[in-house]
Design a protein that fits this description.
The complex is a heterotetramer of chains A (about 325), B (about 325), C (about 475) and D (about 300). With about 325 residues, chain A is mainly α. Chain A contains 13 helices and no strands. Chain B is globular and about 55 Å long. In chain B, helix 2 packs parallel to helix 3 (about 85-90), helix 4 (about 120-130) crosses helix 5 and helix 6 packs across helix 7. The chains are: A mainly alpha (about 325), B alpha/beta (about 325), C alpha/beta (about 475), D mainly alpha (about 300). The complex binds adenosine-5'-triphosphate (2 copies) and magnesium ion (MG) (2 copies).
Chain lengths: ~325, ~325, ~475, ~300
């Protein structure tokens, strides 16, 4: 047990290499998707489709990377990232339209769209985007010009981390200091008061927040392709879009909270791999430890919140 | 104690071998066979072993690097999907040998282990074409991967070689662990009159076998591991890869420092991939069919049978 | 009638963080008697009643039921002991029907027909009609109030706590309710009546207790008090308790004009048809209507929240609206007050929020309008009901609107606060705004308005300012 | 069997575990709790059935599946009700825990060899007369006992929700817990009960996967059914009848997917696999509106 926990630590935060190449590399998609989920939830949109939106972004970035580099040259990378972001927004847009036009709950539509996106990726890597030999279910690798640079030969960490962290700060600032951000918070907290007191276009605000969260998830997918995998694969994401929900909630839906929260989950994932590798812990037990740690963290946070509210109310709730 | 900066000593005495699988090693099929192979290396060569169940392409490269940095002697990525990562990592860790199964990439310290699924699958197809009463046989896969597709194509050709009128149904489950869905895919094929089904779906394939058990007069083929004993009443034969044998072969070379990077092709002649009949159902197979299969097998072993892998050219 | 208290609260203390809501308060109910509880906004009345009903656990003090110490783990215990409560902020399940709300908390099989019959029976007996099969979310505020009373009665409460029950009832109904309460007490029931209306307390109560800032400052039988002595007990220093006298309107410029205006009602609500009227600067126009007449649609159209279906409606650029349901439509309860202020000015504005300026403005209006709150950063949720309302008013008046539309603006306010609000509305009118006030209390409308529009069955017409004519127009008698 | 018969039969088989888990989740959500941990309950039920059925028989297997599911529910309730931890994050962790723990225990109990197909499975129970009806008979009335029970559970739950005081209280707890408390309802007790009940049914769904379908266990064999069940509750608009119809819709779409592949239509299988999800989205567009419990997933 001790050796397993040591491996967990060593494989996540215990060395510079593990921290940058294991934890931070995983933290990038978690920050972006987690940030997207946080924004959506703050606006009262229960977008649990970050996974599908991430895949949509990965597809678009791959397509641009493979087919656009001849024409775009050095602009390939930025165009691929933008295309990924827009594709994520478009995939979220399906659910947004279903919500606004037909009153379909986004909780189910986004969940269904996750499954559809995964199957579509499976199709694309055996169809239109398959490598030229048509043998393997994957795309070719995108050319070097379309790749995000890494920080050096000794690490797999790429510039996506900078994009992610900057966006976290930008969104945090937007929510706190701009009218648009305040509108999102107000609409999420009490749509009818926002409407009655401010003439706020409620459904336009929620739709925009929805699309924006898809945009961030799509960007995460694009960064994963241009920074890590360099090609489109079937199992591109280990469920970043689902973990994103936990990341956002552990962050208290605060954009800045997403930074440490994403690090925690990325560290757990990275450390769990190390547990298998270095402590001989079977994969299944590694996820047991991971789940146990999440529950411990959640339990401690809940207990402290209870203690605080009990103190404030001078009695049990 | 990890990372590139680590400069631990590696000597022949700490012979370390790692295995990366794309799914759980309890699937009684593709991944289970590889795990048996890893255990065989441990038991026969006294190796220190480690294995990881990887989830994503991003994991592949990271894990390869970590093992390289820890001076593992041999790292096996079990599946074609590992080869891109292996190709990228191998040059950085010249003292570690990287092997990917179903791969065709090579380098000084990089080898692909190719298994000849076509010939034994062709034989399985012959058997299926000979025993079907309805003239309809099925293939059911987890997802469409190159070795699976190749093996299914050979199976279909084998069936049509024996019985040109045979119809082949093909379904994919979409994953490798949904046993119930595997069973349903099989039942849907059985409803279309399929009475012999070749499955290659790891754990989900057990559902196919279960469907056969619960239907009348349906036979199935096992794959990857010898699954004849999983349901002796309906599994007529298995297309078996003897992964322990194959892994040990490579591991021995690595341990003896006789390894050369190349694509290693293993098949029936090496006793690595075989069609293993279920003796308990031998009575169901007409004697002339057995004779015919045996003669084709002999021709294959002598390299004088061209038909089986005419699908080596890319499909579609 | 026995002299023993049916239930007594002794030495109750309750703190919320730094706020001491109750400080060693005694209070008791006796069979056959109505005990009025008075106090200004935030005095601790609701908190004390919460303790009595098991909603709030006191930090110190005891409850005695017929002389024996008891403890409520939850309202369930209080209900079992025969206590019923109608809370200031209603406590029912909006998604359920009236009958289901009444039946809630029972055991065994649930028979809808039987529950509905029971509601009808109790409602009829009490003179409080509610449709048992209506979804509560679709009911007007007034009808929700009646449901709450009917429910407590249906549970066989022998001790009833009513927290400002008459604040939302039309005058006729308030009178009927109080008459009923008298009979309830005469039949051996005990009642606590929280109210701001001194005259109401004097007219109906047997005993009176006054709270100020969490302390009991006066208690005794009703004939020991006069209106003046009660007011003095409630308000520490002299404050104006009457609105400034109504000045004759200076007919100003036309601010709103409606021609053949038709507005659709919210789902399940009537709208208005073919309304033609004008509003001018400097006047207060009262709106009188019984529930479900269409006045809600009229007010929302004037507030600019609902686009007319047909006809013409010209509105000024700066409109303030004080909605009837402050929790739903006016406040984000989990936001601090300064963010609730900024909400008012949000609209489709772009650019940055100037938070320091917003905070400063918040502090200023809290002071100016005497809103009791720890600071501008307090969550709206932490304010007492009356102070929430004062804040909403402060926010809307501070925007200096050309048109001010108010729906039950003094609901839940104490006498002094209500008077202040009235004065402010008059000030706004003096300053040149057109003011539209709807109140379910017709007397309030009569007291304030220069002109009165009565809405009945979707028809809007002007009626002379006399109680007789307005009352008749409200029910459709010409 | 005709093609139609086989589609209908596959629809019922596919719908059964989803219906069980969905009805369980319906009760949980009506109490205001969204149980993402349901997936963990399903897989734990499956393993428990696998372990218990060989010595105890099919009935013993189902009982163990229920108990295992309930145990997962106890864990979920501890976090959500007792500690008042966030529902979604606790549920995510509980699901992960269930998936991991079953994989690990399976490995530890049976070794790498696994159990293959050694678990006894329930025989189908033909309802006299009805099972003889053409087309519908074989599909609907030749099912394992558990399927009938699942389908009868829907009206039973409808009766409970709308015709008993406990059901009324449960609905109130999910809509307005503070009001329910003021009306004397023991809110937390209902929440705990609803979570445990829902998880137990999730466990039963796992039992069906093993005992009525696969006759074996495999890591991850729940394959997302716990999550689909949550979607089915929403598709079914939070009513028992709705959940029944929704699981049939999803079951039908899935059955079509099997048939379309087996018929050899010239479609890429990956696209065919999307059929259940796309059809569910279409059903959502066409379905009547209805609202989620107002307090769903809230913690305060
Ligand atoms: N849950 C709470 N948290 C913090 N403070 C509270 C809470 N409930 C009440 N208070 C504070 O306790 C004091 C008494 O509030 P209470 O609601 O009892 O007043 P009240 O006499 O009913 O006033 P009103 O006439 O405005 O309804 C107020 O200062 C209020 O802000
Ligand atoms: N971008 C903004 N969004 C929201 N509120 C703002 C913004 N800028 C300023 N405020 C605050 O909102 C209030 C109204 O600002 P403004 O300068 O428009 O005054 P005003 O003309 O009295 O209000 P309004 O015309 O919006 O009713 C001020 O207290 C100000 O601090
Ligand atoms: Mg009060
Ligand atoms: Mg202005």
């Amino acid at each position: 047990m001790m050796s397993a926990l040591y491996a967990l630590w060593a494989g996540s935060f215990g060395s510079w290499y593990a921290f940058t190449s294991g934890t931070l590399v995983r933290a990038v998609p978690l920050m972006l998707t987690g940030l997207g989920v946080a924004v959506a939830f703050r606006a009262g949109v229960f977008n649990i489709g970050a996974e599908g939106q991430l895949l949509a972004g990965a597809v678009a970035a791959t397509a641009v990377g493979l087919h656009g580099s001849g024409m775009l040259g050095p602009a390939t990378l930025p165009v691929a990232l933008v295309a990924g972001a827009l594709a994520g927004a478009a995939w979220a847009g399906i659910a947004a339209v279903l919500r606004v036009r037909f009153g379909v709950l986004e909780v189910i539509s986004t969940l269904m769209l996750n499954f559809v996106a995964a199957d579509l990726v499976s199709y694309l890597v055996r169809g239109p985007l398959q490598e030229p030999l048509h043998i393997y279910p994957q795309s070719s690798s995108i050319p070097a010009i379309a790749r995000l640079p890494q920080f050096g030969p000794a690490t797999r960490l790429h510039w996506g981390i900078v994009i992610a962290v900057v966006l976290v700060f930008v969104v945090a600032w937007e929510l706190a200091h701009t009218a648009a951000g305040f509108r999102v918070r107000a609409v999420g907290a009490n749509p009818s008061a926002a409407w009655a007191t401010g003439r706020v276009p409620v459904s336009r605000v929620t739709t925009r927040a929805f699309l924006f969260s898809g945009l961030l998830a799509g960007l995460a997918g694009a960064i994963e392709v241009t920074g890590v995998t360099y090609a489109l694969y079937e199992n591109l994401s280990p469920g970043y879009g689902f973990t994103a929900i936990a990341v956002a909630i552990l962050a208290g839906l605060q954009p800045l909270g997403v930074l440490p929260s994403a690090l925690v989950f990325a560290g757990l994932e990275s450390g769990a791999t190390a547990m298998q590798r270095d402590a001989g812990v079977p994969a299944a037990w590694a996820s047991v430890v991971e789940a146990g740690l999440i529950l411990a963290v959640v339990g401690v946070i809940a207990l402290r919140a209870r203690a605080r509210s009990a103190a404030a109310n001078g009695g049990p709730p | 104690s990890h990372g590139n900066s680590d400069s631990g000593r590696s000597s022949a005495s700490d012979f370390k071998v790692a295995l990366l699988t794309p799914g759980p090693v309890s699937d009684q099929s593709w991944n289970a066979g590889a795990y048996q192979g890893l255990l065989r290396i441990r038991d026969s060569l006294g190796a220190k072993i480690s294995n990881i169940e990887t989830k994503t392409p991003a994991d592949f490269e990271e894990s390869f690097r970590q093992y390289g940095a820890q001076h593992y002697s041999l790292v096996i990525g079990h599946g074609f999907e590992f080869q891109d990562a292996a190709k990228r990592v191998a040059p950085d860790y010249p003292k570690t040998v990287f092997v990917t199964t179903s791969g065709n990439t090579e380098g000084p310290n990089l080898a692909g282990l190719q298994f000849d699924f076509a010939n034994p699958s062709f034989l399985a197809g012959m058997l299926a074409g000979g025993v079907t009463h309805s003239g309809v046989v099925g293939v059911i896969g987890g997802t469409e991967l190159p070795p699976v597709r190749e093996s299914f194509a050979a199976f279909a050709r084998g069936a049509q070689f024996v019985n040109p009128k045979v119809r082949v149904l093909s379904s994919y489950i979409g994953n490798w662990d949904d046993v119930s869905a595997g069973r349903e895919q099989a039942l849907a094929q059985i409803a279309q009159n399929a009475d012999v089904i070749f499955q290659n779906a790891d754990a989900a394939g057990l559902g196919v076998i279960q469907a056969a058990r619960q239907s009348k007069n349906v036979l199935v083929f096992g794959s990857n591991s010898n699954q004849n004993d999983v349901a002796p009443d309906v599994v007529i034969a298995s297309v078996v890869i003897n992964l322990p044998h194959a892994f040990l072969l490579v591991a021995n070379e690595v341990k003896d420092s006789t390894f050369r990077g190349r694509v290693i092709s293993l098949g029936m002649r090496d006793d690595v991939v075989q069609l293993v009949l279920n003796p308990k159902l031998a009575s169901r197979i007409p004697a002339p069919l057995v004779t015919r299969i045996d003669s084709v097998r002999t021709a294959m072993l002598h390299g004088s049978f061209p038909g089986a892998d005419s699908a080596a050219s890319p499909a579609r | 009638m026995s002299d023993a208290a049916a239930i007594a609260l002794i030495g109750i203390t309750k703190r919320f963080g730094a706020v001491t809501a109750l400080d060693r308060v005694d209070f008791g109910l006796r069979a056959g008697r109505i005990h009025a509880l008075l106090g200004e906004n935030g005095a601790g009345k609701s908190t004390l009643m919460g303790v009595l009903f098991g909603l709030t656990s006191p930090d110190a003090g005891v409850l005695e039921l017929n002389g024996e110490a008891v403890r409520w783990q939850s309202p369930r215990d209080a209900i079992r002991a025969g206590i019923g409560m109608v809370q200031q902020h209603f406590s029912h399940v909006p998604a359920l029907t009236v009958a289901e709300n009444v039946a809630l908390g029972g055991r065994g099989r649930f028979d809808v027909a039987q529950a509905a019959a029971e509601v009808t029976r109790v409602g009829t007996k009490a003179g409080l009609a509610v449709d048992p099969m209506a979804r509560v979310a679709d009911l007007s505020v007034e009808a929700q109030q009646r449901l709450e009373i009917v429910r407590a009665l249906a549970h066989g409460a022998r001790m009833l706590i009513l927290d400002e029950p008459t604040a939302v009832l039309a005058p006729g109904e308030a009178t009927k309710l109080l008459a009923w309460l008298r009979r309830f007490a005469d039949d051996g029931g005990a009642a606590a009546l929280v109210t701001h209306k001194v005259r109401e307390a004097l007219a109906i109560a047997d005993d009176v207790t006054v709270l100020r800032a969490g302390r009991r400052v006066a208690t005794g039988v009703v004939n020991e008090f006069t209106a003046e002595s009660l007011a003095r007990a409630m308000f520490p220093e002299e404050r104006e308790t009457r609105a400034a006298p109504r000045a004759n309107p200076q007919p100003g410029a036309m601010i709103v004009s409606a021609e053949r205006l038709a507005v659709r009602g919210a789902p399940g609500e009537p709208g208005i048809v073919d309304a033609t009227f004008a509003l001018h600067a400097g006047e207060i126009v009262g709106v009188a209507a019984v529930e479900r007449s269409g006045h809600t649609a009229l007010l929302r159209a004037l507030a600019g929240l609902q686009t007319p279906g047909s006809g013409r409606l010209a509105l000024p650029p700066e409109v303030s609206f004080i909605p009837g349901d402050r929790h739903r439509d006016a406040l984000v309860l989990d936001f601090p007050l300064y963010e609730n202020l900024a909400l008012r000015h949000l609209g489709t504005r772009h650019g940055l929020m100037r938070w320091p300026a917003v905070r400063a403005r918040t502090s200023r209006i809290l002071e100016q309008f005497q809103v009791r709150a720890a600071s501008g950063s307090s969550r709206a949720r932490s304010l007492s009901g009356g102070n929430q309302q004062r804040f909403v008013l402060a926010r809307e008046l501070d925007a200096h609107p050309t048109l001010l539309v108010a729906e039950n603006p003094t609901r839940g306010l104490d006498l002094a606060a209500a008077a202040t609000i009235h004065a402010r509305l008059l000030d706004a009118a003096h300053a040149g705004a057109a003011v539209v006030v709807y109140s379910s209390d017709v007397d309030e409308v009569l007291e304030l308005a220069h002109r009165i529009l009565v809405v009945h069955n979707g028809v809007v017409r002007e009626v002379p300012v006399t109680r007789e004519l307005v009352a008749r127009a409200m029910v459709g008698a010409a | 069997m005709s093609a139609l018969e086989s589609v209908l039969a596959a629809m019922i088989r596919t719908a059964t575990p989803l219906l069980l888990a969905g009805l369980g989740e319906l009760v949980t959500e009506r109490a205001g709790v969204i149980n993402i941990g349901l997936e963990g309950a399903v897989i734990c039920g499956a393993l428990a059935a696998t372990v218990a059925a060989p010595p105890l028989g099919v009935a013993g297997g189902y009982l163990s599946a229920l108990v295992a599911g309930a145990a997962v529910g106890v864990l979920m309730a501890t976090f959500v009700v007792v500690l008042r931890a966030d529902q979604i994050i606790s549920g995510t962790a509980v699901a992960l825990l269930g998936l991991g723990l079953t994989g690990a225990l399976y490995h530890d109990i049976y070794g790498a060899g696994g159990v293959a197909l050694t678990v006894p499975t329930s025989r189908s129970f033909d309802i006299p007369v009805l099972s003889g009806v053409p087309v519908l008979g074989p599909a609907l009335f030749q099912q394992p006992l558990m399927s009938y029970m699942a389908f009868l559970l829907a009206p039973a739950l409808a009766w409970f929700l709308y015709r008993t005081h406990a059901g009324l209280s449960l609905r109130a707890v999910g809509e307005a817990p503070h009001a329910a408390r003021a009306a004397g309802v023991a809110v937390d007790r209902f929440r705990v009960g609803a979570i445990i009940f829902g998880s137990a049914l999730g466990g039963a769904a796992g039992g069906v996967l093993v005992l009525a379908q696969s006759g074996t266990f495999a890591e991850g064999m729940s394959a997302g059914r716990g999550f689909i069940a949550i979607a089915i509750v929403a598709l079914g608009r939070w009513t028992p009848t709705g959940v029944l119809v929704a699981s049939l819709v999803f079951g039908f779409a899935t059955a079509m997917q099997y048939v379309v592949q087996a018929l050899g239509w010239p479609l890429r299988y990956e696209l065919v696999l999307t059929l259940p999800y796309v059809l569910t989205l279409v059903a959502l567009v066409l379905a009547p509106r209805g609202a989620a419990p107002a307090y769903l997933a809230r913690t305060d």
